[in-house]
Amino acid sequence: MSAPVRTLLLITASSPEIQRVRRSRVLNFQQITMPYLAAFVPPHWTVLHVDEVVRPVDFGMQPDLAAITFHTPSAPHAYAIADRFRQRGIPVVLGGPHVTLLPDEAQEHADVIFVGEAEFQWPQFLQEFEAGRHGQRYCSPELPTLEHVPMARKDLFHRRDHTAGVLFATRGCPHRCDFCTLAVMYQSRVRQRSVQAVAEEYGSFPGKVIILWDDNIASDMEYAKTLFQALVPHRKWWSSQASIHAAADDEFLELAARSGCKQLFIGLESISQTSLNEAHKPFNHVSDYGCAIARIHSHGIAVQAGIVFGFDHDTQAIFSETVDFLEASGVQNATFNILTPFPGTRLYQRLEGEDRILTRDWSRYNGRADVVFRPKQMSAEDLLAGYRYANRRFYSWTSIYRRLSRSPVGLPWTLPLNSAYRFTSFIDRLRTWQRSA
Ligand code: SF4
C-alpha cells in the first residue's frame, strides 16, 4: 500500500526589516536552504515553499507540517509565525543558524528543532513523524559529508530571472574570526560536494549569472581549482565569497577568471590591523590590501569588500579613512556592516562578560540599522552615524564614477550592483530618519 499524501510547508522567514533589504532587486538572491532541504523529502509529500521576501505566509493553509528557517534578526518574527501555526494545531519544525546558536530558546516555539545541519536527519525525522513517534530535538551527531547532496529543487525557487542561478560547492571556513557565526556552526571545518555534482547543477541553470553561495570558495585551493576547470565549458558568469588568501594564488585567480568569475566578495573587515588582530583575523594584512586588490583586478575580477565598523580599536577616524582607502584601491563594491555580536560567538561572550550588550532584542541584530553593544571609543550613536556616512559617501555618484571609470570589469556587472547598494543605503537612511522623527 502506498503512503498517504502529506503536505509540507517550508518557510524562509524574514522579518519586515530584512524583507525590505532583500527586496532590492539585484541583491535579492534566491535563499537556497529550503530548496536543498526539499530535495531530501520523499515523493509522497507535496512540498510548498514560501519565501517571505516574495510572498506572505498564508495562515489559512492547513499543511500536515510546517518547517521554518531563519537568521537571528528574523527570530522574533519567525517565532510569531510558529506560534500562530501551533495555535491551529499544525506541528512546527524550526531550524537554521539561530536555532543552532540558541536551541533552548527556539524549542519554546516549536514541536521539533534541528540543531546543526538538517538535511541528513530529515528523511529519518519525516518517517518518524508519519509513524507518530518523532523526537523533539534532532542534533547532527557530526558534520555530515556533502558528497551526496542532490540538486536543489528548482521548482521551489521563486525567481526565474538573471539572479536565479544559486548553488553551493563547499560549506564552512577553516578560520575562527570571533564575530563569525559560521566558525561556531561548522566548527571551522570545510566540506565539499563532488566537483562533478556541482558542475552538473551549475550547468543546469538556464541563466547566465550564477551565485556560488559558499562561505569561502578559497577555503580549499586545490578543490577550487579543479572545480573552476569543470565550470569553464559552461561559459557562465559567477560570483562568490573568498578570504584574502584568494589573492595570493595567481593560478586560482587565473582559473577563476577563465571559468567566468566576475566578482569576489572579500572579507577585508577593517583597514586597522589592530582591529583585525582583535577579531582573531590576523591573516588579513592591511599592508597587503592594495596589492591583493590589484592582483584580483589584473585578472578582470571585481572586488566587493566586506567592511565592519565598531571594533574596540576603531576611533571616529575609521569611517573616512576606510572610504579613502576603498576609493584609492578602486574596489567596485563594498558591504558595510556594524559589528554585531551574534549569540554563541566568542565576540558575544566577551562583550557579555564586559557587560556591554545593550539589548537582546534579536530583531535589532541586523548590522545596519542598530548598534546592540556599547562601543569602546565612540558612542553607539556615533557608530551608527559613521556607518551611514561611509555608505552615503561610497555610494555617492561621485564615488561610483571615480571607482567604476577605471574598473577592469564592465559596467553591465558593476553599475547595477552599485545602483542597488545606493538604493539600499538610501532606504536605510530614510528608515532611520523615520524612526527618529
Ligand atoms: S574568514 Fe570569513 S567566513 Fe571564515 S571565519 Fe572569518 S569571517 Fe567567517
How is this structure best described in words?
This protein has 437 residues and is of the alpha/beta class. It folds into two domains: 6-139, Rossmann fold, CATH 3.40.50.2300; 160-436, Aldolase class I (TIM Barrel), CATH 3.20.20. The chain is built from 17 helices and 14 strands. The strands form three sheets. It has a six-stranded parallel beta sheet with strand order 2-1-3-4-5-6. The longest helix has 26 residues, at 411-436. It binds iron/sulfur cluster (SF4). Iron/sulfur cluster binds at residues 173, 175-177, 180, 182-183, 215-216, 243, 267, 281.
Notable characteristics:
TIM Barrel; 6-stranded parallel β-sheet; globular; Rossmann fold; 38% helix; alpha/beta; binds iron/sulfur cluster; 437 residues
Class of secondary structure makeup: alpha/beta
| Overall morphology | globular
Please, what is the CATH homologous superfamily of the largest domain?
Answer: Aldolase class I
Provide the spatial order of strands within the biggest beta sheet. 2-1-3-4-5-6
| Annotation field: number of helices | 17
Question: What gap, in angstroms, lies between the N and C termini?
Answer: 64 Å
Helix content: 25-40%
Number of separate domains:
2
- The CATH class of the largest domain, by name, is Alpha Beta
Strand content: 15-25%
Poorly predicted runs of 5 or more residues: none
Query: Can you list the ligands bound to this structure?
Result: iron/sulfur cluster
